[in-house]
Amino acid sequence: MALHRVQGVNFPLLSIYEQERIPVSIMSNDAAVEIDRALTNRYRHDIGYGTVYVDLDDTLIFNGSVNVSLIAFIYQCINRGVTVKLLTRHRFDLTETLTRYRLQGICDEVIHIDQSCSKADYITEQDAILIDDSFSERKSVRERLGIPTFDCSMLELLVDERG
C-alpha cells in the first residue's frame, strides 16, 4: 500500500470515497519505484535549548554540499522559535559562500571569528547547544561552558520527526 501511495494511489481514501459513493478516478505516476523498509531511530531527551550555534565548514557544508539533515534540524528550530547562530572561522568570503550554497539568511545571526579565537568566547546563552565537526572545538566548549555539544552523526537525537 505504501508503494502505491507514493505513486499517487491512496487506497484508504479510495475506500472512503467508495463507501460514500463519490465517483473516483485513479491517476498514477509512471515511474519505476522500489520500496526499502528500514528501522529508524527516534529519541526522547531532556536537552533544553533556546539557541543553537552551528559551524559552517565540514558541518553545515560537507564535501561541497549542504548537509540536508542539519538543514532539517535548523528548520525544526526555526519552526519552534529557537534562535540559530552560525559560528564560523570560514577562511574565504563568507557572504559569497553562503550565497553560493543558498544559505544566506537561514540563521538569525552570523558570527565570523578569527582563526585564533575560541568559539566558547562567542557563546553567551546558558541554554545553548553547539553543532560542530571538530572534537577539540566541542570539547573546549563543553569544558568551559558546560553546554551540550554535537557532531553531525549525533543529529538524529535532535531531529523530532513527530512535528
Please tell me about this protein's structure:
- It is a single chain.
- The protein is an alpha/beta fold and 163 residues long.
- The protein has helices spanning 2-6, 11-19, 68-80, 94-100, 135-145, 155-158; strands spanning 51-54, 61-62, 65-66, 83-88, 109-112, 128-131, 149-150.
- Strand 4, helix 4 and strand 5 form a beta-alpha-beta unit.
- The protein has 2 domains: 1-38, no CATH class; 51-158, HAD superfamily/HAD-like (Rossmann fold).
- A 5-stranded parallel sheet has the order 5-4-1-6-7. A two-stranded antiparallel ribbon has the order 2-3.
- The chain is elongated.
Short description:
This protein is an alpha/beta fold.
Task: Write a concise keyword list for the protein shown above.
30% helix, 163 residues, alpha/beta, Rossmann fold, 2 domains
**Head-to-tail CA distance between termini:** 24 Å
Low-pLDDT windows of residues: none
| Assembly category | single chain
Give the overall shape, derived from the CA principal axes.
elongated
SSE sequence, one letter per element: HHEEEHEHEEHEH
Q: Which helices and strands, and how do they pair?
A:
Layout: H1 2-6, H2 11-19, E1 51-54, E2 61-62, E3 65-66, H3 68-80, E4 83-88, H4 94-100, E5 109-112, E6 128-131, H5 135-145, E7 149-150, H6 155-158
Parallel strand pairs: 1-4, 1-6, 4-5, 6-7
Antiparallel strand pairs: 2-3
